[in-house]
Amino acid sequence: MTFSSKTRKQAIEKMKTETLDLLIIGGGITGAGVALQASASGMKTGLIEMQDFAEGTSSRSTKLVHGGLRYLKTFDVEVVADTVQERAVVQSIAPHIPKPDPMLLPIYDEPGATFNMFSIKVAMDLYDRLANVTDPRYTNYMLTKEEVLEREPQLQGERLLGGGVYLDFRNNDARLVIENIKQAAQDGAQIASHVQAQSILHDENGQVNGVRVSDLLTGEEFDIHARLVINTSGPWSDFVRELDENDTTPSQMRPTKGVHLVVDAKKLSVPQPTYFDTGDQDGRMIFVIPREDKTYFGTTDTDYHGDFNHPTVTQEDVDYLLEIVNRRYPEVDLTINDIEASWAGLRPLIASNGGSDYNGGNNGSLSDKSFDEVVAVVSKFQRNEATRWDVEEVLENVESTLSESEASPSSVSRGSALETATNGLITLAGGKLTDYRKMAEGAVNLVQETLENKFDLSYKLADSKNYPVSGGKIDPANVDEELEKIAQIGIEKGLSKEESVYLADLYGSNAPKVYAQIDELEAVPGLSLADTLSLHYAMEEEMALRPIDFFWRRTNHMLFMRDTLDAIKQPVVDEMARFYDWSNEEKEKQMEELNRTIAESDLSELKQRNA
Predict the structure, then answer these.
(1) What is the dihedral of CA 19, 21, 23, 27, to 10 degrees?
(2) Which has fewest Cβ within 10 Å: 381, 411, 546, 561?
(3) Which CATH number does 5-58+174-254+414-466 carry?
(4) pLDDT per residue over 228-266, tens digit each?
């Protein structure tokens, strides 16, 4: 099976002529999850994405599969329980992607601090219990001030009390999307990127029965007919619903922008992901995360009203993050010129849902009496003397000052919403990346019921908790060992250990397909053999149509390997031009787009203004 520009054309032709059971609008993580489950259940499924897969939001996250400890700052037990349980499911169906990476949380004696040394231990113990963390390598533990500073010497020592360490997982967000997409295609879904919805179609009864679309690569417009249409376009959900002239549903999205900045690890060295209050009493928290000899940090959390297709990093964003990181790491003295890469993304938040936010709610605090009640019931819960429901009952009735008359950008819920309009258009919006499979499961259950009730079509749903994504055919209990065995195949074919391990980590159980290309390919001039293999696999098996798709979303080269990007960008464009038979004009256009995106990631314009 291939998943390439050729299969894109074939998918478009099929979608022109067949009536689908389900058409999905949006190829981020939510749409990808729906596509996988629907196609695995035998439904005639189609998916269109107006950009590259994951280009809009799902490649612009903090790149963690969170357990949600931050939600315990308002003791939101249900959110944490659901999140950590779902995280375990994601790790089992995509075991080559989420990797355990314990998080350090330094505790400072500051006004409005999220946790103190006592409450963080209570929260972490509850977290481990909810997440069923029993492996001694990953159970939480406390550190003294001296131990924290020994681990991170550059960290601010003033007012530091100590810290806690708990289990979290690093993630490759765009890879998770493409692996879901590939599996859906393998199971028969018709999938095409760069196809944009133009208007919603209706039958004689006014019910949605398809979409008028435009192929953005050819300019052709055509209709796709489907019994059901689901809108999974994330921050664009309101825009898609506005394409339906009969839809009167009020807007529901309140997107916020998050920004991340990347510097060299030699400049800001952290041995493990670190997570702390900003110190500004604004309810936000900041991540500082090591990755591939780099360190990245974020995030901001501000209401967004600009171009949804092109959120950018502003001077205000840079100033905000640099001020906080330089305060927490006072000897580092980062400037804008130290930033090697950056990204900005929109969070698909639902405006009507107050409560636990991306950063764990507002900065209210529990009364002493209420806190004692919480600690007591949590202690009983840990001793198996109380149930999770007992804990939640206490929390629902607890006295607090956590409510706000108007939600700030940092207190808008990450909850999801699944709604069916009177004309039949289904919208699945909101949510967190960690919850994507569960969100998709709810949507596909609804689709199954509707197809049976309205169209007399019966489908048995796949067990999505045990249905691996592409590349995920690995025992989740022995990931490291299995990836080592897979990497050995590449080594035996002539790759270095470093190259082969990198490809095994990137592609999981698909890595042998990547290595097999060695029998047919030679290294492209200017590229290593490993880069050549990765590029061809991206074009032939992952529908990478542009250089930017390869450098950002099929690999993380642009974000975390900036040092070698300038040397290989021309060879990559040359090889893609040869493979796709681009004209000189098209090749030049692709290089211009790549250079423009790199300059934006580099913050070249802002750096010039600051010169």
Answers:
(1) -130
(2) 561
(3) 3.50.50.60
(4) 999 999 999 999 999 988 777 778 888 889 999 999 999
